[in-house]
Amino acid sequence: MKLTHIIPLVSLATAVYAAPQSFDFKDPKGVNNAVFKLDAPLESVNGSANGITGTVSFDPENPAATTGKIVVAAESLTVPNPMQKEHLHGANWLDVTKYPEITFEAKSLANVKTDANTTTADATGTFTLHGVSKDITVPIKLTYLKDKLSARVPNLNGDLLVIRANFNINREDFNIQKGQYEDKVSPTIDLSLSIAGASPAK
Amino acid sequence: MKKILRILALLIVLATSITWLATGANRGWTKTSVQVKTLDEVTGIEGITYQKKFLPGVDFLAVAFGGATALFAASFLFRKPNTKSNQTNN
User: Fold this and answer.
1) pTM of the predicted structure, to 2 decimals
2) DSSP, res A160
């Protein structure tokens, strides 16, 4: 067998057997965030959450096989108005004491398009909020930053994976004040997720 | 007393209006913190933190104006001292 035949075979074997990397989204820098917005008559309710954790399995050679789970600590949801924050966390709205986590578990990707280090896809998975789980599909953008971990965390080599997603949900689907206050707070919640996970080199 | 209440009402209206205008005339709800965005140059993510800052909104104005109106209304409960009748009696 000639060398020119062996090289493609070795490359193929490497691609087939390359193990997916596990990316940890616990962010010591506190940059990862989820932004939410609800329309309201006087002023839209804008806030964010930064208590984000989770792991995602990503294979740069096969982004379509990406799976994982992202968890947002409900307690970390913040709005600039203290009374709105109290209501948001309270038993009538999110009830963060009883339902401390908001999660999205991605099970499969569709419409996967990869261009250089960026992949766009529709992720289907289970979104859990206020104790209610619902299967939803959200458009996501994955950016694989090879060997960039040391630029963010000195003395630690590895890769970064940035995930961005913009989508909306209906609060009534998750039993949050169903049929109530529709004239005061929109039932539609716009969500925007911007997170980066790290995969240290082994 | 009548005069004091009216001056107090005027001062409340002026002070709250000046405070509201000086802090950016926020036409939304009162806020006790504001979002500060910082760009993470490696990932391109805009991180969000909150900085403590009092930003009065229209609810703040409404409460202050309501209080001033109550003081102004209360001033009508006090009658002017009837100096003329006092002089006649003397």
Assistant:
1) 0.82
2) E
